């Protein structure tokens, strides 16, 4: 959705109506309206992608479908009540990803490592076990705190992962299974003309975190590249 109040408000009004009429009949009757909003949504994301290309090496845009995957869910409502999109960085050297979630009363921009594979997760944990000074420097920086407050992510275990000391000074970092950052926006902020600019500045504030984590995940504990020449 473009950074114009009318388009943003139209999109949110559609989502509000959808949440009250979350069924295929209603959606089919309002498909043309959705298609127009989805087109604006893609334009909005494309503009952010184009601007971010000046600052980072990106690979692709992924705009999430409005349809829910209900195969294994007790909730059988067929549609999401939000618009979501992600921007991927070019692997294998650049890690982390940018995400935006637009939803009435629950809009946020985030990024990081939601589900690292076992190998990456172990590498991250070993890094923090060996030296957590750099990640603490990044997360205590005033810009990081201004945008994100703190490093977030669910814990993978209650005490300590297997092979780690539960009394280690960095155990709060080590026991996480996710490492993410997030910034929330009110609906008023979403409808402002500066919203798109704020998304971009928020993404840029993630870069020190991403750059550090990319270095960790592309080297071993001796600082040597994991890629063969």
UniProtKB/TrEMBL annotation:
Domain of life (superkingdom): Bacteria
InterPro entries: CHP02453, UCP028451
NCBIfam families xref list: TIGR02453 family protein
PANTHER family from the UniProt entry: CHROMOSOME 12, WHOLE GENOME SHOTGUN SEQUENCE (PTHR36452), DUF2461 DOMAIN-CONTAINING PROTEIN (PTHR36452:SF1)
Protein name: DUF2461 domain-containing protein
Originating organism: Epilithonimonas ginsengisoli
């Amino acid at each position: 959705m473009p950074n114009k109040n009318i388009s943003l408000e139209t999109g949110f009004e559609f989502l509000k109506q959808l949440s009250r009429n979350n069924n295929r009949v209603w959606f089919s009757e309002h498909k043309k309206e959705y298609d127009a909003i989805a087109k604006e949504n893609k334009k909005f994301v494309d503009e952010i992608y184009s601007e971010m290309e000046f600052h980072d090496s990106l690979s692709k845009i992924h705009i999430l479908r409005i349809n829910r995957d209900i195969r294994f869910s007790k909730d059988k409502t067929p549609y999401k009540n939000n618009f979501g999109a992600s921007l991927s960085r070019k692997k294998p050297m650049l890690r982390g990803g940018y995400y935006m979630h637009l939803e009435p009363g629950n809009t946020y921009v985030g990024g990081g490592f939601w589900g690292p594979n076992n190998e990456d997760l172990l590498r991250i944990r070993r890094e923090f076990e060996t030296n957590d000074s750099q990640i603490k420097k990044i997360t205590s920086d005033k810009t990081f705190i201004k945008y994100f407050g703190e490093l977030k992510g669910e814990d993978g275990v209650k005490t300590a992962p297997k092979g780690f000391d539960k009394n280690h000074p960095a155990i709060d970092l080590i026991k996480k299974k996710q490492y993410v950052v997030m910034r929330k926006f009110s609906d008023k902020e979403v409808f402002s003309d500066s919203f798109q600019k704020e998304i971009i500045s928020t993404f840029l504030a993630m870069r020190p975190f991403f750059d550090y984590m990319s270095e960790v995940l592309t080297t071993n504990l001796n600082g040597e590249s994991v890629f063969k020449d």
